Amino acid sequence: MLNVGKMIRNIRTDKNMTLKELAEKADISVSYLSQIENDSVNMNLRVLEAIGNALNVPLYAFFIQERILNISAVKKEGRDRILRSDGVLLEYLTDPNLVNTNVHIMTVPAGYCPQEYSSHPGEEFLYLLKGDLEVDFNRLRRIKLDVFDSLAYPSLIPHKIISIHGCELIMNSTTNPGIYA
């Protein structure tokens, strides 16, 4: 049987139901439901269907649980924030444990012009929200972005972001596969 206990618990708590309330609606004991939620017992399809009906969740939803459990919802106040040593603030909009794409808001201090180039596997996407920037690709190509411009590139190419007019930059940055700086 699938390990659906965590999924049942998440749905139950999302609906602000107690163990006792769900057990009564599904016509099973509280201790049995607790064991189900802890994935310590197997259950038959009839019990799973009763729990699904009590939660108002279709039976098929339990069979696509891997996809359901990998949904990344990050509340504004719950974002991971990392202030790098170069003054760049990264606010992560996705949970790196659940998805392969890392989406974050990057705030770059005024006058930012790193000495070193960055290079990492995958692809990167930038969407500029504030400021004017230039992306230098290993002194071989430089691309200027204005507010609301975007840029996508293979991130194995050595690159660095430069604040053109010395102002703070704010951008949405996406890396795939995700890297957690």
Percent in strands: 25-35%
**Percent range of helical residues:** 10-25%
Low-pLDDT ranges: none
Oligomer: single chain
Enumerate the strands of the largest sheet in spatial order, edge to edge or round the barrel: 1-2-3-9-4-7
CATH superfamily of the largest domain: Jelly Rolls
- How would you describe the shape? elongated
Order of helices and strands: HHHHHEEEEEEEEE
CATH architecture of the largest domain: Sandwich
Features:
Jelly Rolls, alpha+beta, 181 residues, 5 helices, 434 Repressor (Amino-terminal Domain)
Helix-strand layout with pairing:
Layout: H1 5-14, H2 19-26, H3 30-37, H4 45-55, H5 65-69, E1 81-83, E2 89-92, E3 102-108, E4 123-130, E5 133-137, E6 141-145, E7 150-154, E8 160-163, E9 169-176
Antiparallel strand pairs: 1-2, 2-3, 3-9, 4-7, 4-9, 5-6, 5-8
In short:
This protein is of the alpha+beta class. The protein has helices at 5-14, 19-26, 30-37, 45-55, 65-69; strands at residues 81-83, 89-92, 102-108, 123-130, 133-137, 141-145, 150-154, 160-163, 169-176.
Describe the structure.
By secondary structure, the protein is of the alpha+beta class. The protein folds into two domains: 65 residues, 434 Repressor (Amino-terminal Domain), CATH 1.10.260.40; 101 residues, Sandwich (Jelly Rolls). 23% of the residues lie in helices and 27% in strands. It is built from five helices and nine strands, in the order αααααβββββββββ. Strands 1-2-3-9-4-7 form a six-stranded antiparallel β-sheet, with no helix packed on it. α2 packs across α3 and α2 crosses α4. The radius of gyration is 23 Å and the shape is elongated. The mean pLDDT is 89.
